[in-house]
């Protein structure tokens, strides 16, 4: 897998946000963390605690005095910002940025994303270092993202862009366990035999649609072989108990 | 805009995570926050501070004693989990789940997502309340997400899905017909009462897992209200015929 984008935190104010950002990075396979002019005491216990196992990303962080130095080795830079900075730049969403990053990776290009201080965001002098602005589409009435959550969304889209995602709607248990239609048919016949006997299907002109509806709901459940056995057991027990009780009362 | 999914935090342990989750919700236009058995002191200053302007989502949270009560009015429920719970369920990614939610919204269906406690995650008895599992594709070597960050990714994909692209999945039947979890619970109790009486569940130490597995297979079927009535009728007829026959033979 590609090393992905460098995550560049410009003048971060809260050291626990550095730890939480590192965690969000490692969740998505990213490890290149860069800090521009962090506070002298940034490497605190709170930062390590917030990293929650992603310590190596925090401890491996590279420190720079200026944004220009932090991006010096990169070919392509995005700047995260929610506000219009009166600067003419193309704007990506995290998803379109991730697609572009994937293209750059194939070309062996190095790239990174700038994130501003918690309260103020990136300044124009930082943003001018970037080729492109990336803005997360969010509720226009409440769009302020926590720094680490902004890092998470950029890193997440990068990881998803590499795919493959989990197969859509795959089962949490081997789908090979799913019953054959023959086993299902066997249960349907067992159930319908008993429903005929007990009179549930006694109205002849309604029987076909009732049978179809009953079969349909079980078809939809993707039953496993074991579950079909369980359903056989349920019907069998309800019925044999009925017979046992019948005999018991004679 | 649609109200989107209810966000249901099951037994949350840290009140600041409730606040951070509320912030992530409002960032993405969500406001229906539900808490199952939170700690008595959950509504703390830390929760409000972490909400950082999303106070109204925290203050509007609905409190429930059980997961079943929290989902009673919903037609469709997802459970977030990273682990295979040995339960056969379809699995969505946040993106495929969001596409399905958009589809349900168009049909006026109510839905929600369950999130487990920080350390332990959801228990099987919570997950069985859900139709579908949702798992975030992440770095397999480091996939543990902070609770609020998991909420953010689900809410973010929901918000992004409301773009122009068409929903990816369609139910062949109007999902508005899908039974509420309350109706489903009524059938489960009816069925289990009869299975207790007829002895199918007589082995005490196997009963909980058998009940869970039976409930799970019906949960997965996305039963309509009419189909739940049909199942009530099936059980009722099998049982009353048994009694009628019992009487008939005295």
Automatic annotation (TrEMBL), chains A, B:
InterPro entries: Alpha/beta_knot_MTases (IPR029028), RNA_MeTrfase_TrmJ/LasT (IPR004384), SpoU_MeTrfase (IPR001537), tRNA_m1G_MTases_N (IPR029026). Pfam families: SpoU_methylase (PF00588). It is found in: Cytoplasm. GO terms for molecular function: RNA binding; tRNA (cytidine(32)-2'-O)-methyltransferase activity; tRNA (cytidine(32)/uridine(32)-2'-O)-methyltransferase activity. Residues 6-156 form the tRNA/rRNA methyltransferase SpoU type domain. SUPFAM superfamilies: alpha/beta knot. Its EC number is 2.1.1.200. One of its GO terms (cellular component) is cytosol. GO terms for biological process: tRNA nucleoside ribose methylation. It catalyses: uridine(32) in tRNA + S-adenosyl-L-methionine = 2'-O-methyluridine(32) in tRNA + S-adenosyl-L-homocysteine + H(+); cytidine(32) in tRNA + S-adenosyl-L-methionine = 2'-O-methylcytidine(32) in tRNA + S-adenosyl-L-homocysteine + H(+). Keywords: Cytoplasm, Methyltransferase, S-adenosyl-L-methionine, Transferase, tRNA processing. Catalyzes the formation of 2'O-methylated cytidine (Cm32) or 2'O-methylated uridine (Um32) at position 32 in tRNA. NCBIfam families: rRNA_methyl_1 (TIGR00050). Homodimer. Belongs to the class IV-like SAM-binding methyltransferase superfamily. RNA methyltransferase TrmH family. This is tRNA (cytidine/uridine-2'-O-)-methyltransferase TrmJ. It comes from Magnetospirillum moscoviense.
